[in-house]
Structures are given as structure tokens and as C-alpha cells.
Design brief:
Blueprint (H helix, E strand, L loop, with lengths): L5 E5 L4 H17 L4 E7 L4 H7 L3 E5 L9 H22 L7 E4 L3 H12 L4 E5 L6 H6 L5 E4 L14 E3 L6 H4 L10 E5 L6 H16 L5 E5 L3 H14 L3 E4 L5 H6 L3 E4 L3 H10 L3 E3 L9 H10 L4 E3 L7 H12 L2 H14 L4 H10 L15
Parallel strand pairs: 1-2, 1-4, 2-3, 4-5, 5-6, 6-7, 8-9, 8-11, 9-10, 11-12, 12-13
Helix pairs in contact: 3-4, 7-8, 7-12, 10-13
Length: about 375
């Protein structure tokens, strides 16, 4: 190759967009060490701290979201922040123009995709959820290809043959984890990167009911922050339950490896990681998630028997205790769920996504057919 190819990944805001972007970047660098990768994000997003800490090349934009915003903010974003951001991106690209831009969702993705389209740079969209977000639904008609974390998303996009159900890339350290039964059942609780108030309140009470009924088990509960962890820890202690309560977890592989059953929200990456590990799960979708995407994610795995979906609006401590009781202490049921989850799991997501990218990166499509083993 006469020069080093540059891949630009635009989007972020939350861990649900940032972590898949990083997983894709890491997979691409591992496959093609000579590839350069840069990012476009928002000053107000998780990427503003996470990407610089990793030493990534990132252009941060002064962008605001419009979901739930008033008319004045929407007008400001549309007629001031968006054009200004596009100009900033194109100015930055004068030094080095990307060969391909991947939009991963979030409001920073709009600016990046718009700048790429104006600059005649190929655009690939990466939609992580079973129900595509507004940004990707809007932009899908203008891009070259669309990579889908869930095959069900095809029904909600107008991409035709340009769509590829690739699955979501899961970090190898997590993919190496394989569920196994434990002599002492362990319940895992995961409310997402910010925790989940309803899980922090309901799960400890449900566990207390099970302890009072003579059930023996242990718990690892990620509460989301230190304040919530202190409250949750006190409830478990009062119930006399052996529980490890953490504000957050730096070693998710060890977390998954330790569990028998998990109660969790159903963000796209949580569902994908759960399936890869073969972790039986009770999913409680966030009811106010954009376009109800968490419910669609959870149902995708539940439909093949790898998980159970619990509706938050009808969930009580009693009903949750019953669901935990039905699954946590039934080794045969857990084993069947684990096998079903892994049969569904996107183990080849990295291969499929890199094959799509190789089509638009100079020289890489000819390297081992675009994808090597």
C-alpha cells in the first residue's frame, strides 16, 4: 500500500455506543496493525474522558442531544451546532482524510456521517440494537453498508442488500468465559454502566425473601455508584445474605465467570456478552429506553430460550423472588438456557465486521480476501 489507510469512527455519548466502537477499533488494529484509527465524539459524552485516557486520536465536538429537548435547543443544534461541527470535522480532515467513516450512533455520529457524505467518503453504519435508533434509521438510506448487532433490526431499516447481520463484537477476555454450574449458586446483578434503581431496590428484597424461605446462595451486585452500593449492601447485611456489592466492576470477565444466573438490564452489549458466555439471564429492559430498544434486545435472546424477559412495570419483589427461585436452583434449566444462548451468540462478529470494512479500506480487501484467520 502506498500510504496508511485511516478508519474514522464517529459517535458515542454512552457506553452503549462507545464500547462497541472501541471493540471494533481494537479488532481492526489487531487484524491490520498498519491501520490508523481516529474517533469523533462529543465533549459531553463518555468518550471525552475514556478515549484520551486510552491515548486515542479523537476530535470532540460541542454537541447537545435533542431527544426530550425544547424547541429552542433543537433549533440551536440543527442550525448552529451541527453545521459548526461539520465544518470542524472537514477542517481537521484537511491534514489527513479518512478512507472510511463508521457511524456507531449517538448525536456525534450525525456530524461525522454528514461531513463524510459531503466529502464523498464512504460511510458504514453500525447499529448495535435490535431496534435501530433514530439517527441510524435516518442515515441508513445514505450509507454504503449497515452492520447490525441483531438480525431483527433489518425489519426496521431501508437498507436492502446493503445490510449485514454481523452481531456485536465482544472483547476476547469475555468471549473466553464459559458458563458452568457452581456448587453454591451465585446470583449476579447488573444494572448497566449507571446502575438501575429498580434492580437496586427490588433484587435485595427478593433475595431476602428467598433467604427467609431457607434458600442458600450468594450474590454479586453491581450497583452503579458508591452511594447506591452502600444502601444495597445494608439491605443484604440485614437479611444475613453473603453479598458482594460493588459500585462498578473493572473485571467483567471474572464477574461473568463467577455467576450461575444474572438479573440485568438488556443493553445491546450486555445481551451479546451474556450470550457469548452462555450466562442464563433474567432481563429487565429499561422501559424508557429510546424506541424501547432494550426490550427488543432481550426478546431476541429470550425467543431462542437463552433468557427470560421480566417487565419492570409488573415486577415486584415477590414476582422476582419467584423467577429467581425457578431458575437459580434448577441446574438442568440453567444448562439448557446456557446452551441456547451460546447457539445464538455472535462468535463470528469480528470476522463479519472486518470483512465489511475491508471493502472500503485501500489494500485490505486483497489481504487474505479481506479477512484472515
Amino acid at each position: 500500500m502506498s500510504r496508511t489507510a485511516l478508519l474514522c469512527i464517529a459517535g458515542g455519548g454512552t457506553g452503549g455506543h462507545v464500547m462497541p466502537a472501541l471493540a471494533l477499533a481494537d479488532a481492526a488494529r489487531h487484524r491490520w496493525p498498519e491501520l490508523q484509527v481516529s474517533f469523533i465524539g462529543a465533549e459531553r459524552g463518555l468518550e471525552a474522558s475514556l478515549l484520551p485516557d486510552r491515548g486515542e486520536q479523537v476530535l470532540l465536538l460541542a454537541m447537545h442531544g435533542v431527544k426530550g429537548a425544547g424547541i429552542l435547543q433543537k433549533l440551536r443544534v440543527l442550525f448552529w451546532e451541527l453545521p459548526k461541527s461539520v465544518i470542524s470535522i472537514r477542517r481537521a480532515w484537511k491534514q489527513q482524510r479518512p478512507d472510511l467513516l463508521v457511524g456507531v450512533g449517538g448525536y456525534a455520529s450525525i456530524s461525522g456521517v454528514t461531513a463524510a457524505l459531503i466529502s464523498r467518503i464512504p460511510v458504514v453504519l453500525y447499529e448495535q440494537n435490535a431496534m435501530p435508533g433514530l439517527v441510524n434509521r435516518t442515515l441508513s438510506r445514505f450509507c454504503k453498508r449497515i452492520m447490525l448487532g441483531f438480525a431483527e433490526a433489518t425489519a426496521h431499516l431501508s437498507g436492502g442488500t446493503r445490510m449485514s447481520a454481523t452481531g456485536n463484537i465482544v472483547r476476547q477476555v469475555i468471549a473466553d468465559v464459559q458458563w458452568q454450574p457452581h456448587a453454591m449458586p451465585r446470583l449476579l446483578v447488573l444494572g448497566g454502566s449507571q446502575g438501575a434503581r429498580v434492580l437496586n431496590q427490588t433484587v435485595p428484597r427478593a433475595c431476602e425473601m428467598l433467604i427467609n424461605e431457607g434458600r442458600e446462595f450468594v450474590v454479586t451486585h453491581i450497583a452503579g455508584n458508591e452511594e447506591a452500593a452502600a444502601v444495597v449492601r445494608e439491605i443484604y447485611q440485614r437479611a444475613g445474605l453473603n453479598a458482594e456489592v460493588l459500585p462498578f466492576c473493572d473485571d467483567m470477565a471474572a464477574f461473568y465467570a463467577s455467576g450461575s444466573l444474572m438479573v440485568a438490564r438488556s443493553g445491546a452489549m450486555t445481551v451479546s456478552e451474556t450470550a457469548i458466555c452462555g450466562m442464563p439471564a433474567l432481563f429487565v429492559p429499561l422501559p424508557h429506553a429510546a424506541d424501547d430498544h432494550q426490550r427488543f434486545n432481550a426478546e431476541s435472546l429470550a425467543n431462542v430460550g437463552g433468557a427470560v424477559v421480566l417487565e419492570q412495570k409488573s415486577m415486584t419483589a415477590d414476582s422476582l423472588a419467584a423467577a429467581i427461585d425457578t431458575h437459580l436452583f434448577n441446574a438442568k434449566k440453567l444448562a439448557v438456557m446456557s446452551q441456547s444462548a451460546q447457539a445464538w451468540a455472535p462468535f463470528d462478529a469480528s470476522e463479519k465486521q472486518l470483512k465489511v470494512l475491508a471493502e472500503f479500506l485501500p489494500g485490505f480487501a486483497e489481504m487474505d480476501g479481506g479477512v484472515s484467520t
